[in-house]
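Predict structure. Chain length: 286.
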Amino acid sequence: MKMLTLNTHSLQEEGYPQKLEQFCETVAKIQPDVIALQEVNQSINAAPAGRELLQGYVPCPEETVPVRQDNHAAQAAFRLNRAGITCSWTWVSAKIGYGKYDEGIALFCLNHEIAAAESFFLSSCQSYGNWKTRKALGIQRKYSKDWFFTVHMGWWEDEEEPFSSQWERLGTSLSPKRETSRIWLMGDFNSPAERRGEGYDCIKNSGWQDTYLLAGQKDSGVTVEGSIDGWKSSDGHAAAPGGMRMDHIWCSKKTLVKSSKVWFNGIDGPKVSDHYGVLVETGDEG
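Prediction complete.
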C-alpha cells in the first residue's frame, strides 16, 4: 500500500494552473492508494461545481460548505478520472483562508471506494472566520478496517491554539478507533522532527509510530526548505536553514514500512507547493 501526503498551498501557489497539471501527472505515474492533502482551497465566490466535477465525490456528513468550480480537490480528481484512474474523494472546509478562500483538507482513494467519511474540530475555536480554526478528516475504504486521517495542525508555541491542546482533542476522538482499527495520520503537523520537547515528541510519546523511522529505505525526509508562512525568523529568513521534516505519516501500530520518500521537491517530481510531499510504501494492502 502506498500513501502520499502533501500540503498543496493550492490556489495560493504562484503558477497554480501549471502546478495542478504537474501534480496530477505525477500522481498518475506513482498512483498512491491513499492521498492526504492540506490547504485545499476554493474561491468563496466561485460557482458551485457541476456533476462532472463531482464524479467520485463522497460528501462528509458534517460538511456544510458546497464544493465550488475551482476547488483544488475537485479539479485534481477530475483530471485523474479523465486519465482513466478511478478516484474516490472527499473534502471539508475549516475556515476562510487569506480572506478569499474556503480552506480545507481532502482525502483521495485511487482505484478504491470510500466507504465512510467523518470530520471533527481539532481547535477549541470553531469560528469559520478565524484562520486558526482546524479540523481533521478521516476515511475508511471499502473492504478495509484501516482508517486514514489528514490533519493540518497548529503551532507548538501558539498561545491561543497550542498544538498540545489540538493533539489531545485528536487523541480523544481517535481513541475508540485505535482499539479496533489501525489508524494512519497524515499531514502537515507544523512539528519539525528536529525539535525536541515539542509537537513531534508529543506525538511519538503518545505511542504513535513514525513511518519514516520504520522505513527500510529512506531519504533525508526534508519537506520544507526556505522561508514559508508560519516558519520565518524575525528577519524574514528561513527558520531552519537546513530544512525541516515537518510533514509526516504516523501509524497507530508498528507496521512493516518498505520505504519513505520525499516527492514534489524538484528531484522526484516538480515543485508544486511551498511544502514537499511524503510517499510511504508499506508491506501490506491496508
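Summary: Residues 163-180 form the longest helix (18 residues).
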